[in-house]
Every structure is written in C-alpha cells, then in structure tokens.
C-alpha cells in the first residue's frame, strides 16, 4: 500500500504545484495591474467574472474536455502521457506538458478571477494609506511605492488567502483527477472507494492530512519571512 501511494504522490504534486505556481504569480501581477486601473473596463470585467470561481475546477474541466478534446481535437482527453509513453526524455516531457494543459487550465479558470478580485482589493486598501500618500509627496517613483509600501505589507494577507485556497484545491483533487484520468492520489482515492480498499483509503487520508500540515507549516515560514512584525526565535526576540 505504501509503495502504491508513494508512486502516485509525485503525479499529484506535479499537477497541483504547476497550477498553484501559475495561479499565484498570474493573479498577483494581474491584481497589481488592475489596482492601477481602478474602474477601467478590464477592472469591471474581472469583477463581473469573479462569481464564476464559485464553481469547482472539475466543472470547468468537463467543458474544456468537450471543447478542446472532443470538438476541436487539439488536446488529449485525459491521462498524464501518451500510450505507449514516448521513448525519449524530450518526447516524454512534451507529452506531459500537453496533458497538463487542460487540468491546469481548469484549476486556473476555477480560481483566478476571484483571486485577482480579492488581491486587487488588498492593493487598493493599502494604496490609500497615509504612508503611501507621504511616499508620493516625497517624490518616490510609482514602482518604488508599489514595491516598498504597497506590495510588501499586502503579502501577508495574500499568502494567507492563497494557503486557504491550496487547502481547498487539495480537497478537490479526487474529482478533478478522476475527470481527467490523472494517475495521482485523487484518482487512486476514487478507485479505492469503489473497490472498498479500506487500507488504501486510510493511508490516503493520512497523506492528505500531512499535505495540509505541510501547507500550513510553509505558510508560517513564509509569513515570518515577509512580515516584519513576526519575530522568529525564543521569546520573540
């Protein structure tokens, strides 16, 4: 059982690490961009699209499969690589990237608009603070003001909201991997439930619990690095 779980764990990490990195940086830069253009047509469009993030990623995954795999036949229906797998390392990597497009796109569509809207709001709140107005009065450039006085104090709440989003994504891995036939922990969990494999179900539950703990631990570490108010050490010194 342990070997089965360890064999599937890297596949889940590849899928969700790729999606989460793309989501974090794309949403961060898009939110910062929109905070400079408050009230623009693009800003209003993001606000209008934010409620679409209420639907889970697998919901959008079904429509992506229908459009790009069934109708347009541009991308594969599911799986991780072609069958049989390409013999060369480059061919295997290209096949993996091709199979990653649809599930990663489903995760992004299911979360990116609400994330941009939320983080853009954080930036707008901090950009109206008195110390930002003082920095403008001192003649600092807009980039320096964004980097020192807006982005840095906004990072702690952004990282907190992103960590909560990660936990939600881990919980939705079972259905998403099943929809895309991705050979990860979620797909293994679904098959174990259907076959009444109690030991595998318990083992996977423990693994998911560890993943959540690691996520929260990384949150604490990153929080201590980006927030100067958090002191690390004995007695907070």
Q: Helicity range of the residues? A: over 70%
Mean of pLDDT: 88
Low-confidence stretches: none
CATH class category label: Mainly Alpha
Rg on CA atoms, Å: 21 Å
Distance between the termini: 45 Å
Approximate shape: globular
Q: What is the subunit organization of this protein?
A: single chain
The total count of strands amounts to 0
Q: If you had to describe this structure to a student in words, what would you say it looks like?
A:
The protein is mainly α and 237 residues long. It has one domain: MetI-like (MetI-like fold). The protein is built from 10 helices and no strands. Helix 1 (2-36) packs across helix 5 and helix 3 runs parallel beside helix 8 (173-179). It is globular, with a radius of gyration of 21 Å. The termini are far apart.
């Amino acid at each position: 059982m342990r070997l089965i779980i360890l064999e599937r764990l890297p596949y889940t990490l590849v899928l969700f690490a790729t999606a989460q990195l793309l989501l974090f940086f794309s949403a961060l830069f898009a939110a910062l961009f929109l905070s400079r253009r408050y009230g623009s047509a693009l800003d209003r469009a993001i606000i209008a699209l934010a409620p679409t993030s209420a639907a889970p990623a697998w919901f959008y995954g079904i429509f992506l499969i229908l459009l790009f795999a069934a109708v347009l036949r541009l991308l594969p229906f599911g799986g991780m690589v072609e069958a049989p797998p390409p013999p060369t390392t480059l061919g295997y990597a290209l096949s993996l990237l091709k199979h990653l497009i649809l599930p990663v796109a489903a995760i992004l569509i299911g979360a990116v608009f609400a994330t941009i809207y939320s983080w853009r709001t954080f930036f707008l709140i901090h950009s109206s603070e008195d110390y930002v107005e003082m920095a403008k009065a001192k003649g600092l450039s807009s980039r320096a003001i964004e980097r020192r006085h807006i982005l840095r104090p906004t990072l702690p709440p952004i990282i907190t909201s992103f960590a909560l989003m990660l936990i939600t994504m881990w919980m939705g891995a079972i259905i998403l991997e099943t929809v895309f036939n991705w050979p990860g922990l979620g797909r293994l969990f679904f098959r174990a439930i259907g076959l009444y494999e109690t030991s595998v179900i318990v083992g996977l539950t423990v693994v998911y619990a560890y993943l959540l703990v690691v996520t929260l631990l990384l949150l604490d570490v990153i929080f201590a690095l980006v927030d100067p108010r958090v002191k690390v050490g004995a007695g907070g010194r």
